[in-house]
Amino acid sequence: MKIIFGTTNQGKIDQVKGFLEYKKINNIEFISLKDIGFNDEIIEDGDTIEENSIIKAKVIKEFCNKNNINEIIVTDDAGLFVDALDGRPGVHTARYAGDHAPQIECINKLLSELKDVPDEKRGATFACVLTAIMPDGKIISCRGETRGKIVRIPGTMGKLTYGPVLQPDGLDRVINDLTEDELGLTHRDKAWMELISKIGL
Questions:
Q1: What is the reported pLDDT for 171?
Q2: 83 in active site
Q3: Whole-model pTM?
Q4: Could you write out the three-class secondary structure of 82-130?
Q5: Residues 7/180, Cβ–Cβ less than 8 Å
Q6: How far is Cα 22 from Cα 18, in angstroms, rounded to an integer?
Q7: Which residues have C-beta within 8 Å of that of residue 43, sequence separation ≥ 6?
Q8: For 146-195, how does the pLDDT look when each residue is reduced to its tens digit (9 = 90+)?
Q9: For residue 89, is the peptide bond before it cis, meaning its omega torsion is within 30 degrees of 0?
Q10: 67 Cβ partners below 8 Å, 6+ apart?
C-alpha cells in the first residue's frame, strides 16, 4: 500500500518507516511531497494541531485531485503543551523560537522560561495528530499523547525538536534516548499505531 506522507523531511519519513518496520508492519511504501511534485507553501493558521493537520491534508488532496493522484494522504501536526506556561508553546510549537529556528534555540528558549519552575511543576504533554484522507475522500484522524516532565539538562539532540527535554512518566530517560524496546510509547508512535489500525493495515 502506498501512502503520501505530507512532508518534505526525509528524516521524518525514515523515522516512521523504522518504527513501523520494528513493529513488523512492512507493507507500506511512503511517498514524499517531493515525489509527487508538490512544492506549494501551506498556511497552517488553525487554532489547534487538529485543525492544522486537516488543513495540510486537504491542500495536498486538492493537488492530488488535479494531478490524478489517487493514494492515501497522511499529514501530521504536533505540539508541546507545558503546564507551567499555560499550555505554551502548543499550536505554535514549530515556530516558538521563530520560523525555522535551530533545535538548540527552541530548547534554550523553553528551558529559559522554565528555569525558576520547580521539578514538581514541570509537567507537560506532547501530542501528535495524524490526519488521513482516503482515496474516496473519507477523513480519519488520530491523536497520540505522551505525558511527562521537562528536564533541566537536555538528552540526545536531533530527532524530535523537543525530544531531548521531555521525559515520559515512568521512565528515566527523555524521548530521544528511548531504546528500540520502548518504541510505541511516544505520542507519534501511538498516533501511527491507531491510524494503522483504523485504516486496516
A1: 92
A2: no
A3: 0.90
A4: EHHHCCCEECCHHHCCCCCCCHHHHHHHHHHHCCCCCHHHCEEEEEEEE
A5: no
A6: 6
A7: 55
A8: 999 999 999 999 888 899 999 999 999 999 998 877 767 789 889 999 99
A9: yes
A10: 36, 37
- What is the DSSP annotation of 30-78? EE-TTTTT---------SSHHHHHHHHHHHHHHHHHHTT--SEEEEEEE
Cβ-contact 110, 96 below 8 angstroms:
yes
Looking at residue 1, the DSSP 8-state letter turns out to be -
Residues 185 and 178 sit within 8 Å (Cβ to Cβ) = yes
Give the other-Cβ count within 10 Å of 22's Cβ. Answer: 13
- Decide if 157 contacts 176 (C-beta within 8 A): yes
11 vs 34: CA distance, rounded Å = 13
Please count the other Cβ atoms lying within 10 Å of the Cβ belonging to residue 57: 25
Which residue numbers in the chain have pLDDT < 50? none
Q: Which of 77, 136, 169, 177 is catalytic?
A: 77
Q: Is 196 helix (H, G, I), strand (E, B) or coil?
A: helix
Helix, strand, or coil (residue 169): coil
* CATH architecture assignment, domain 2-199: Alpha-Beta Complex (3.90)
What is the C-alpha separation between 35 and 174, in angstroms, rounded? Answer: 33
Cell numbers for 51: 485543525
